[in-house]
Amino acid sequence: MAMPISQLWDNLMLFLVIGIFIELAVSAIFSVRIIDDLLNTTLLRSVKNALVLIAAFGVCAKIEQLRFLHGTKIAVPEMIHYILSSLVLARMANLVHDFINYLKARSKGM
Questions:
Q1: From CA 86, how far away is CA 96, in angstroms rounded?
Q2: Distance (Å, whole) CA 78 – CA 20
Q3: Inter-residue contact 69 to 76 (CB < 8 Å)
Q4: How far is the CA of 80 from the CAs of 34, 45, 64, 84, 100, in angstroms?
Q5: Among 59, 67, 71, 76, which residue's Cα sits nearest to residue 51?
Q6: SS (H, E, C) 44-108
């Protein structure tokens, strides 16, 4: 039983690393100073989240081995596996974004 858990942990760390790259790529688009001021609006945050989700679906579609349960003995239908992997990858990118915002807020507070 230790093998599937270890593989799942490795997959989670891989998703975190790829999530960092997706977040950095999407954040680069929104790093223009004019857009940065507008990012506080709900509409622009929704657009940014949609771009992250589209990028996650694209990455998971292009890389066959990039499946969250890849290498484990857990059997899931392929379409559900693809959707689950894309959503986990998008969430990892959002976690990175939230962590960066947390660090920015702490550095401004000091």
A1: 16
A2: 25
A3: yes
A4: 39, 27, 14, 6, 30
A5: 59
A6: HHHHHHHHHHHHHHHHHHHCCCCCCCCCCCCCCCHHHHHHHHHHHHHHHHHHHHHHHHHHHHHHH
Residue type, 92: M
Domain map (residue ranges) of the chain: 2-109
Average pLDDT of adjacent 10-residue blocks, the chain of 110 residues: 72 85 81 63 81 89 80 80 87 86 82
Question: CA 94 to CA 99: how far, in whole Å?
Answer: 9
Q: What is the pTM of this model?
A: 0.76
What's the CA gap between 76 and 86, in Å, rounded? 14
